[in-house]
Amino acid sequence: MQELLPKLARILDLIGENAGRAASWLVPLSILTVFTLAIIRHTLDLDSAFLQDGLVYLHATLFMLGAAYAPKQGVHARVEILHQGFGPRGRALTDLLGDLLLLVPLALAIIWLGWGYEAETASGAGGLETSIWLKILIPVLGALLLLQGIAGILRNGLLLGGASPADAGERVTSAGEGN
């Protein structure tokens, strides 16, 4: 059991990390879309609703697939004044409570409210269901956040139980601190 929990935390981390890395490929595509929109607008004096809508979809997809990457990397929003003042066990406890009381319930609410929402699609001007992709991604966002929350709970629970960062499933940086 001692070896199973860190492995499970690493696997769950890997899912969120891979989703975030996959989403990062949308950034150059977004930049290219903005550049193309600017060229079309300023040189040809045209607007492209298709490209503008595509840009909104790219940004939304980037956020929804990449949101679970932030807690894994420790760059999510939290009260840093408190967090930095604590030692390793205090940080593990605040992270565990944050995951347990905030991240997991939020993820479950996103899944619950987003499930079946894609059935309520609106048709665009051409009759195509333009919003189904984003509506499908809502429960995916919730699932990715839930998996990352479970990974954080496992890892921080192991740290509070006395495991080292490496034994708790954290990657250890060259400075020796968990990442």
Give a structural overview.
- The chain is an all-alpha fold.
- The chain has one domain.
- Helices cover 69% and strands 0% of the residues.
- Helix 3 runs parallel beside helix 7 and helix 6 packs antiparallel against helix 7.
- It is elongated and about 65 Å long.
- The C terminus is likely disordered.
What assembly state would you assign to the polypeptide chains in this entry?
single chain
Radius of gyration: 20 Å
Q: How many domains?
A: 1
- Strand proportion, as a percent range, falls in under 5%
The major beta sheet can be summarized as: none
Termini gap: 23 Å
- Tell me the overall shape: elongated
Instruction: Give the averaged pLDDT, no decimals.
Output: 81
| SSE topology string | HHHHHHH
**Count, helices:** 7
Structural class: mainly alpha
User: Portion of residues in helices?
Assistant: 55-70%
Layout of secondary structure:
Layout: H1 4-24, H2 26-43, H3 49-66, H4 69-73, H5 80-85, H6 88-114, H7 132-160
Helix pairs in contact: 1-3, 1-7, 2-3, 3-7, 6-7
Question: Keywords for this structure?
Answer:
single chain, 179 residues, disordered C terminus
Concise summary:
The protein has one domain (about 5-160). The chain contains seven helices and no strands.
